[in-house]
Write a structure and sequence with these properties.
This protein starts with 13 loop residues before the first helix and ends in a 9-residue tail after the last helix. The N terminus is likely disordered. The chain has one domain. It is an all-alpha fold and about 190 residues long.
Length: about 190
């Protein structure tokens, strides 16, 4: 991956984040992960970067496992982030495989749940469903704010409904634990 970046562009703060990501700066340092607007902005800006600076983004071969022999390792976190936002459907689809087990990337998985491309959208929905149990605390709060924002998009309701169901179940489990009861029975 070329590290030329897109810093010359300053229309959106996400341009600076793309520059940092292409330089290999970890996601938690490259952008404000608590700001839901950063994730949607990053998604838009990476697509713009693909037009203005295409060499900065990971290739399809890098994302879907057809890596050059001289680079036999899986894509790093930064490459996966850029792949999840890539304008090419097959790269976004392949990047979702590499996003599994990386809770820091779940906000972009949530963004992909409203993707225009059905295969990408379905893979993202399956991944978010599988990985949501591992999200807690501040990360869950941030994800909740993001999915509420994404619910306005075409196909955006799925992630909001999934997180809402997850929150209701967690609240129920907490109530059961605090009452010391494992079953419910009506009062006589």
């Amino acid at each position: 991956m070329h590290n030329g970046g897109c810093a010359a562009e300053t229309r959106h703060p996400a341009w600076a984040a793309v520059e940092r990501l292409t330089a290999g700066v970890p996601v938690r340092l490259a952008l404000d992960v608590a700001d839901e607007r950063v994730w949607t902005g990053l998604d838009r800006v990476v697509r713009e970067c693909a037009i203005t600076r295409p060499g900065t983004l990971p290739s399809a071969a890098r994302m879907d496992g057809r890596r050059p022999l001289w680079r036999p390792r899986p894509p790093g976190e930064c490459e996966v982030v850029l792949g999840l936002c890539h304008p090419k459907e097959r790269i976004r689809y392949a990047a979702l495989t590499w996003a599994a087990g990386r809770p820091a990337l779940l906000p972009l998985v949530a963004v992909r749940c409203s993707d225009w491309a059905g295969p990408v959208r379905e893979r993202a929905r399956a991944l978010l469903t599988d990985e949501l149990e591992s999200v807690e605390g501040g990360a869950l709060e941030n994800l909740t704010v993001l999915v509420v924002r994404l619910a306005r998009r075409w196909h955006g309701e799925f992630a909001r409904e999934l997180v809402d169901r997850h929150l209701r179940q967690a609240r129920h489990r907490a109530t059961v634990r605090s009452s010391g009861s494992t079953t419910w029975a009506p009062s006589p």
